[in-house]
Structures are given as structure tokens and as C-alpha cells.
Amino acid sequence: MMSVGENREAAESWTCEPLSGRSLDEIVQDAENAADLVTYIRKPDVNLDFRLKFIANHEEFFDVQQSDRQSRIRTCHNLSDEGIRGDTVFLFVPGLAGNLEQFEPLLKLIDSDQKAFLALDLPGFGHSSEWADYPMLKVVELIFVLVCDVLKKWPAAVPKDREVNPFDNRKIVLTGHSMGCFLACHLYEQHLAALKVVEKMVLLTPPKAHIEQLSKDRHLIQWALYGVFKLPWLFDIYRNKFDQVNGLKSSGIKQYFYQDNNDIKLKYRKLWQFKNNINNKSRTIIGYLLGWKAVDWVGFNDMLAQKGMKQSIVIFGAEKDPIAPIKNLEYYEDTIKKQCLRKVIILPDCSHNLCLDRPELVCRKFQQEVVGNNSL
């Protein structure tokens, strides 16, 4: 087992290994020399440059059955690895247009401490199958069914009756990023609170607590979203002709990264984000906005207040985040029960995709506040 100091050192020297075997310098140089970055990065022979060995070594697909739909979901986990200690699983839920690979620095950090992790691609993003529509609570239900299915393959050290508790005596550290914070809160309220399995919740750059524009009462906006959902090429025109042609100066990069220097690892991470951006389908993005479900914060707090609940909540904000400004965190600080909200951490000089913008800093803080302090 690595000490806290060794884990911190590993986090600070964080790097990534592409499946292509090429160096990051080669990959970045070829991309920078390309006449058209969009065309270049879509080439099939470039794919392995942005597939990471650590993810590939821990990747597994699961067929998840719900009452009205079946999904093929990509996961990344180390539950089958030898040497994994304890019965706590770190569960990672990405946000809108994100996927599990954005958590790679944190997954490697947890794995280095021989703790269990599980991350997933949401339906329609990454390498998971698409849906006809994307109601948020259906996505939440899918995550719950998936987690139960995955954990049943690797029973806990101290088995219990799975009919009573499908988590089989395991505990969960539930981490969401951006929209994934809302998914995590819904997952807690809808499914996990009653099972008393959540040890800690970690919210990474959570969105505004109440997004009025996505309210079902905003009929004009809802009709506009529905129109684009049915005719996604309208959004494609903007993305393809006016935004993504700007390459690493496009909005999907500028809003996700604050760091801007000549560091090769940073340039590579930006290229990875850009490739993810152009692979995401407009229809899926709009579908999630149409299916948006606000968190009932009163009900959420009521769940936290129930007898026997022991989880704590840690929030990470990014100082330079234009998508989820840190002023939005005031609502969470004022609303979440004080005995549950353990800490709010503001990362300096960091933007929305904090794990790729400043991975070393995020890993160090996550080690200090979550991994090294996950027993209550």
C-alpha cells in the first residue's frame, strides 16, 4: 500500500499513456501541424492516440436492462484486480457531454491506494449506447441498476443478504461532475439513501442549483429545445461552421480550461477534450436538456436528516469556471445541512473540467479531503 505522501507524489507526477504508443510530443506536434484540426482528429488512425492504456486495461461493457429500454454501457473499474482493499467503492458520474475518461487522473490515484473505483459513460456519450430520449430520472435509474449489476459480480468481503441490500455490505463514495452532481443527488434521494450505503458525496463544479431556463414552465424554451432535438442539424451548423472550426480556441475548450501555456501534457488534454467534443451528438446534448429534472433540495436535505445517515458532502469549485461560477456555490452552502457539508474547496486558476485543467492539484486535494479521509 502506498503512503499518503507516495500517493501525493504519484498525483503530482500525473501523466497518461496513449494506446498508440506514441509520445505526447509527437501527437501534439502532428495535431498542431494539421491544416484542419477537425478533419485530422476525426481520422480513424488517430483514435489510438486518444485512447489511454489505464482506461483500456480496466474497461468493461455491461448490458443493462430497464423496464422500457436496454442499454450497452461502458464502464471502467478495478473491482476484479488483485490487491483491492476494503469495501468502499468510489463511484464517478460524468456530466453533460462528458465521459469516464475525464476522471482518469482520479481513477489512477484511487487505484494506486488499492481502493475500488467504478466510472461509466452515460447513455449517448462516450462509448455507451444511445437512447430515443433522455429523461434524467431514467438515467439515474440506469446508474443504480448498473452499479448493482457490477457489484454483484464482485461480492464484498462480508456478504449479506442481497435481497435486503444489493450492495452486499459495500459503501459508496459518490462523485459527480457538473450535471453528474445532479445525477448523484437524484441517485442518493431516489435509491441510495434508503440503503444507507453512501459514505460520502463529492460534487465537482456543480451547476446552478436551480436552472430556470430548463423549467418545464418555460414553454417557449421547451418547444425550441424540442425543435432542435428533432432537427439536430440546426445545432450542428453552429457547432461545425462557427465554433469547432476554431479548434482549441472553440468555446468547448476555452470554457473548460483556464490554463493556457506550452505544457505538452496540457495541450494533449485539450486535444483529448476537443476530440470528445466533436464526437458528441447534438441530439444527445439537447435530449439531456429536455429531460432535465431539478433536484428537490428540501427533499434532499430531509434524506440527509434521517436517523442513521452518516454521509458527509465535499464540494469542489473552480475559481475561473464560466459554466458553473463559484458564486453558485453560495446556495449549496446555505441550503445543505451544516453537519453534512464538511468542506467547500475552491481551486485557483482552474476552470470547469478541473480534472483535465489542473489534474495534479485536483488529485492532491482529492487525496487529502476524500481518499485519505473516507472513513467517518
Automatic annotation (TrEMBL):
One of its GO terms (biological process) is acylglycerol catabolic process. PANTHER family: MONOACYLGLYCEROL LIPASE, MONOACYLGLYCEROL LIPASE ABHD6. Pfam families: Abhydrolase_1. This is LDH1-like protein. GO terms for cellular component: membrane. It comes from the Eukaryota. SUPFAM superfamilies: alpha/beta-Hydrolases. It comes from Saccharomyces kudriavzevii (strain ATCC MYA-4449 / AS 2.2408 / CBS 8840 / NBRC 1802 / NCYC 2889) (Yeast). GO terms for molecular function: monoacylglycerol lipase activity.
